[in-house]
Amino acid sequence: MNIIRFISRRYLFSRKHVSLISVLTGISIAGITLGTALLIIVLSVFNGFFDVIRGFLLSFDPDIRIELYDSPVMPYDEELMSSIRDHPEVVNLAPFIEGKAMLISEGRRNDVVTVRGVERGSHIRITELERSVQNGVFDLSVQNNRPGVVIGDMLVNRYGLSPGDEIALLSPSGMRRALTQFSAPRASRFIVRGSYSIQQIIDDEIVYIDLVAAQRLFNMRNEITGFDLQLTDTDRAERFKTEIASVLGDKYRIQTWYDLQKPLYDVMNIEKWGSYFILMIIVLVAVLNIVGSLTMIVLQKKKDIGVLIAMGMTSKTIKKIFVSQGIHIGLIGCGIGGLLGVLLSLAQKEFGIVKLSASFIIDAYPVMINPFDIVLVLGGSMLLCIAASWYPAVRAAQIQPADALRDE
Q1: Do the Cβ atoms of 268 and 300 come closer than 8 Å?
Q2: Could you give the maximum distance between any two Cα atoms of the chain, in Å?
Q3: Which of 122, 134, 289, 390 has CB 3.0 to 4.6 Å from 94, enough for a Cys bridge?
Q4: Do 255 and 268 fall within a single domain?
Q5: pTM attached to this predicted model
Q6: Do 183 and 305 sit in the same domain of this protein?
């Protein structure tokens, strides 16, 4: 029998009577249980929201985007793209052109929109775009001497457009030529072939046209803005970025899916870990009760401690007895709280018990349980419990047998 565990359990869980010490111990365990469960649930909900937002953004964002650092355009280098396309982790490579242009429709106001030129056969996430088309088709080809355009449903509603209507796009270079050459601005005309609908997580209205049409619109001859990559595993994007950067050199800007929406992802991570530190205060308050209850045990058992020391038990062993009590409290509170937090998170994930507003993109709070978060919560709570037991343990180890037994 381990004498340290035996004595610590006897001191902590006395069956003779209910005392103030046992009440404080119960409060400590309840506080640790509540704090641990809440931490696991809240962190799992934040993970769920992060996963939902990432899923929507990755429906249209690439895993990797490559552009030049010092220039808004790069040559259409087929040899470079072929070498990257042959990498075993690359599923697809798609060149693109992106820029701002003025959208003009007869009889209606004009707006500046983001225009993206893509190759129909290689555009990243093309299947997601095709599935999101609610009216018309995703067709950018030239028909009757007019290239096609696919626009967002917000622009469709704003302009009152429908498939078959004609719009014009005027690029900054076209406006510049009109001003310098004192001529009417030359706009490129397109036929609306369809409209797509996506959840507006970010406020960005993108107009899709063919890559060749975009080169004419922005006066880019055999040039592109950059190219997007789709990888076999999205979660390996950061590692692939480091690997491909050593091959391409410093002149290329390589961005992962996280880099493309970094402000949004950073805010979500700050909120998650900010909530973690705030909710740890609940555990800290419960831990302060451990200090009080163990200190009272030291005072109550002062004579017993003196007898143990007189019988040959070392101060180090006495210290371990009271640290063991803190560990016992932590194990009980963290065990019950961890199990409760995981079970409630699983229940929310499976049954969607807590609902969200009907206008939100999902109907219930999303949950994703991360084993690392559980380990972090349980480990943090246990460390606080051990730290709380350190002061009473040191105080007990400093008791002198003569002082403890003087009144006997």
Answers
A1: no
A2: 111
A3: 122
A4: no
A5: 0.83
A6: no
What total number of domains does the chain contain?
A: 2
**pLDDT tens digits, one per residue of 101-149:** 988 887 666 788 899 999 877 766 666 777 788 888 888 988 888 999 9
Tokens of residue 163, six digits: 């498939």
Task: Give the residue from 202, 155, 156, 169 showing the smallest Cα distance to 61.
Answer: 202
Among 259, 279, 303, the domain-final residue is 259
> What is the C-alpha to C-alpha distance for residues 141 and 149, in angstroms, rounded to an integer?
9
Between the CA of residue 343 and those of 44, 340, 367, 375, what are the distances in Å? 12, 5, 12, 16
244 shares its domain with 164:
yes
114 & 168 share domain: yes
In tens, the pLDDT along 138-176 reads 889 888 889 999 998 888 888 888 888 999 998 887 666
> Are the CB atoms for 129 and 152 separated by under 8 Å?
no
Q: What is the pLDDT of residues 348-387, one digit of tens each?
A: 999 989 888 766 678 889 999 999 999 999 999 999 999 9
Range of the domain at 145: 64-259
